[in-house]
Amino acid sequence: MGETLERHEFGAEVGRLLDLVVHALYTEREIFLRELVANAADAVDRRRFEALTDPALGMPAETALRIVPDKPARTLRIADPGIGMSKAELAEHLGTIARSGTLAFTRALAERPAAERPSLIGQFGVGFYSAFMVAERVEVTSRRAGSEEAWTWASEGKGDYTLAPATRAEPGTDVVLHLKPEAEEFLEPFRLQAIIRKWADHITIPILVTHDGKDEPANEGTALWRKPKAEVSEASYTEFYRHLGHVFDTPWAVLHWRAEGALDFAALLFIPGMKPFQAVEGERESRVRLHVRRMFITDQAALLPPWLRFVHGVVDTEDLPLNVSREMLQATPVLARIRRAVTGRVLSELKTRAKDAADYAKFWENFGPILKEGVWEDAEHRQDVAALLRFRSSAVEGWTSLADYVARMKPGQEQIYVLVGEDPAALAKSPQLEGFRARGVEVLLLTDQIDAFWPERLDAFEGKPIRSITQGTVDLSKLGEGGAGEAGGEAADLTALLPRLQEALKDAVSAVRATDRLVDSAAVLAAPEHGPDLQLQRLMRRAGREMGAGLPVLEVNPRHPLLRRLAGPEAEAELGEVAGLLFDLARIQDGEPPRDPAGFAQRVATALALGTG
């Protein structure tokens, strides 16, 4: 056997991660057992599912996970009859880890208090490596279901691992931990049983702990979602939520119900209390688990739409056959009805919780940008989702809804006004708002990337059209006078000036026009009437995609001293230079750099010199 022993180096990131796990996550050592048991249970679930379509992988009569402490040898063995791993899978799953996951893990570790660090393990897919918190050596012997070949992976967590041929009577995996002297508490059966009850009591696969040569049950093994709500404690919900999502926070909402009649299913869903460290933005599929008669089938049944992908949980139905395939799942009308029912129940819960503004703000700050996707892509639920949206505003503190905005609209106001950008603080100071503020007209400030898209699909709320104030001409004349502001003075006659400005800027703008929505600023940019607004254009340019939107419109303030001076005959000679400066100032105010930064700086320096000479 020694001749066929293969030695492999861990990647640099794995070595670094092992050091982090061993030294920085030492405060909650018992977490290792939860992670190894969860891995074993997942392996059994995978074998059950694959056996539905491949009888050669059939499950044995005994499906329990066994935990066997051996005090004289100071070893702890976790054995499962699951799908097992081939030699290649052992190397892939236990010898490498994604670089991005490791780096994210490292950053998150540095940012979190020590007491919260154990929650990071499962979230970054590094649960197996938590074994090195208590073990000086780990050996994994595994035989893939459907194969006669077994292999042993072994490592001391110090930079390398070995692979060697082995034997195992049945498919499955044995994880053997050679415990450190200071970790001998994990050889006590009572301690092991207590950890299982704490972390894995609701795993439906039986978990046995060997005590004095006898296997004793360690978990209740009851499907929590099948119990009546009155029989489930808040602590039990939280434990199951943490087990299910490999997280350590407390759920913001728990949805537990049983549907009977035309549909027969039980559901237990959780809305998390915090963002995951691996953002759900990168993974757009719902991962709610589908069970049939308590048996796990798949977590890829898309039981919720992508814009509710932050919801975790289980849906268990009697109305599907156990041997349902993934292809059948996409076509069966039963699952389509379950999806509609589950989606409706989540929306109902959010509507109820939204009545408590402070409580709902916690949810919104975590998952609001994802929920907004529902307005863009789901016509059936668009209006329901729109009612759940929250925004910053130019007129009120905190979060506000579209319904609250409509209730505060001024007499004569016919549209919901929005300003889309990236930084709430910058938007609040934007010159685009001057005329609205002067007339007491509220504008919603939208700062998520999805905000550049969804208003086009919603179009209106409670009969009020939604209008970006950077798109086309905004007529504020019906909403009162705006006042002169710091610019002061009467409005200049720009009839002759506007064509000359447009000629000077013909390569940069599609039009130059006077506007009444500026108070203190000289100029501002707007998008053409029928094109995308300015923020959407910026996003598309950054993505390397031009939208054919055409050149922007330059709107100028006829009350501003600069425009009044340019309207005079004495300004003819400097018009070209000042026109370029005016356009660049409008770009800067809108968050864009000047076209020629060096030339812009020179023009500003010249203007300052003339002004102080």
Automatic annotation (TrEMBL):
Listed Gene3D superfamilies:
3.30.230.80, 3.40.50.11260, Heat shock protein 90, C-terminal domain (1.20.120.790), Histidine kinase-like ATPase, C-terminal domain (3.30.565.10)
Enumerate the GO terms in the molecular function aspect. Answer: ATP binding; ATP hydrolysis activity; ATP-dependent protein folding chaperone; unfolded protein binding
Compartment(s): Cytoplasm
Q: Where do the annotations place ATP binding? A: 35, 39, 80, 85, 100-101, 123-128, 173, 326
Domain called Histidine kinase/HSP90-like ATPase: residue spans: 28-183
Give UniProt keywords alphabetically: ATP-binding, Chaperone, Cytoplasm, Nucleotide-binding, Stress response
Outline the segment boundaries, as ranges, of region: A.
Answer: 1-326
Q: Which domain of life is it from?
A: Bacteria
Q: Does the keyword NAD apply?
A: no
One term under GO cellular component: cytoplasm
Q: What's the chief localization of this chain?
A: cytoplasm
Q: Which HAMAP family match?
A: HSP90
Q: What family, per the record?
A: Belongs to the heat shock protein 90 family.
The UniProt entry, under NCBIfam families, shows: PRK05218.1
What is the protein's known function?
Molecular chaperone. Has ATPase activity.
* Entry protein name: Chaperone protein HtpG
- Name the gene behind this protein: htpG
